[in-house]
Amino acid sequence: MICKGSSYSKYIDKGINIFFIFGQEIVLKNNARDDIKCYLKQHQGFEEKRVIQEGGIDNIHQVILENAGGSLFGSKTLIEISHTAKGKIDNYIQSLVEIPNINSMENIAIIIDSRLDKINKRLKWFKAIDEIALIIDCQKLKSFEEKIWLKQQLKFLDVQKRSEAVERIFALNSGNLVAQQNEVNLLKLFNASNHHIQVDYVDDNAEFVPFELEDMILKRNTSQALRVILSIKEHDDHYAALLVWVLGRIINNAVAAIQSPRPDAALLKLGVWDNKVSDYKKLMQSFKLKRLIGFQKKIFELDLSNKGINKTNFWERISDLVLELSSR
Fold it and tell me: Fold for domain 2-137?
């Protein structure tokens, strides 16, 4: 079953336990993933979580079967498969569809978060996953769809204020869902501080994987980058070392490319996706080489802090570095 990124909420409670998310619009992807996680945890009792990155493709079958019967204490397990690099997505799908009754296992749920922007729906692997999963296609919204989406995000306002806010935010940020989401979040905070809505609305229960930090920094989205850091601190602080690795990768890629006579080719050789090359180049234009090298030193210090070798506050230091990197 396939649906748009703006209408997935109609289907996540239909007994489906496999979700495949892809598309160009990162806001829709993030919202879909967060809402699915929230539903599975609150309504289906999925308390445990396993994350499989690109390097774990060979043992997906084993991981799923190990968790199919629940843990030692009978907990349900959510398995997140992050398709973040250039590995073939059909290998992931093949590993899933070969497992008998994969879509009817009560103790596991699977979310595949793919970096693919578009997919040929006639491909064999796509047809295979379509038969067992809810596929959420998060493409850019048309203008009228943006307004409908924005209205849904502003449900915490009364009707009159909601209509005014929709028109104002859309007029200023048409075509930019990230900016619209930021405006919505600011309105939530403002209303909460003035007791116009319950504070529950701004209690951010969203969970992220560290690799999303790269997108937020490259897009220079400071608020979302800090949200990723805060969420991981609250929910998955064992990912601290992976956050350091992601930041180090961004900086090292930029340092290598800025010193190359052919920056585009250098970035591609380093494993940067084609659609991110322009974002990396914009980041490189914002900093001189000397400052980027200074960032490398900060990464080294962050690694020491995470390992407890120095006494600095790791989460404060990493937030400061993210602010420096993502600010325009």
Answer: Rossmann fold (3.40.50)
